[in-house]
Automatic annotation (TrEMBL):
It comes from Achromobacter kerstersii. This is Malonyl-S-ACP:biotin-protein carboxyltransferase MADD. The gene is madD. It holds the Pfam family MdcE. GO terms for molecular function: transferase activity. The keyword Transferase applies. The keyword Plastid does not apply. Keywords: Transferase. Its EC number is 2.1.3.10.
Length: 255
């Protein structure tokens, strides 16, 4: 699906969204939504790189949404639509502190979730490295469309960092999803909660996801992260949830 197709399937009217320099932001009303919700939308399109200027624009929109929600007593969802390259590794971006700008964007999304806003990412194309970590992967729930290709780090880059032969990593990737890029592997680890059906209205599927994130849950329950348990159920991260439980138990016992 193209971004235009996605916006048409998600929203009753997306004319109010700004699309500029590979970025997307604004508010739009979900199609056929009985609750009349107008989520904040941010995103990256056209496999654009995410640099310091881009990160600060998107973070500003998220923080404005939090402030408006606090003033109005509302907690509208935040949708993050992503088709990006990696972070922009230019000399200017690096000298300005690219890592801090990306961290600021990621923490803005995490803060929004902590303040009660459902944060939902939607991968509809490519994304990689810091651009992925600071956007869609920083949301509380990550969705994807078939054909999306996320990669926190590709195998050649892993080989350079770990000093392991590429052939060794390729062999490990066949049986260990955490070593392998791609949508199927990320879903196995619990990183992607659900792959949407492009043949059905996306608005209805996103509404169902939002209902599971908000209906009948306490603020504490909303804040919980279940991706490790999802990864255990799917076999992609068999021990992460158990280790987290043990660490939590030890921390509680030490209080």
């Amino acid at each position: 699906m193209t971004l235009d197709d996605i916006l048409g399937s998600l929203f009753a009217d997306s004319q109010g969204l700004v699309r500029e320099n590979g970025l997307l932001w604004g508010r739009a009303r979900l199609a056929d939504d009985g609750q009349d919700r107008m989520p904040t939308v941010i995103g990256v399109e056209g496999r654009a790189f995410v640099g310091v200027d881009d990160a600060i624009v998107l973070a500003r929109v998220v923080l404005q949404t939090i402030a408006q929600g606090a003033a109005q007593g509302s907690q509208e969802p935040i949708l993050v639509l992503i088709d990006s390259s990696s972070q922009r590794m230019s000399k200017r971006d690096e000298l300005l502190g690219l890592n801090e700008f990306l961290a600021h964007l990621a923490k803005s999304l995490i803060y929004a979730h902590a303040r009660g806003h459902a944060t939902v990412g939607l991968l509809y194309g490519h994304t990689a490295a810091g651009a992925f970590i600071a956007t869609a992967l920083a949301t509380s729930t990550l969705l994807a469309l078939p054909g999306a290709h996320p990669a926190v780090m590709d195998l050649p880059s892993m080989a350079r960092v770990t000093k392991l032969p590429l052939t060794v990593l390729e062999e490990k990737a066949k049986s260990t999803p955490v070593f392998a890029p791609g949508l199927d592997n990320l879903a196995q680890t619990g990183g992607v909660a659900q792959v949407l059906n492009p043949d059905q209205p996306l608005s209805a599927q996103v509404r169902d996801v939002l209902a599971t994130l908000t209906t009948g849950l306490t603020p504490r329950e909303r804040a919980q992260d279940h991706r490790d348990r999802l990864g255990k159920t799917r076999g992609g991260r068999p021990v992460a949830a158990d280790i987290a439980d043990q660490v939590y138990a030890l921390a509680r016992a030490a209080i």
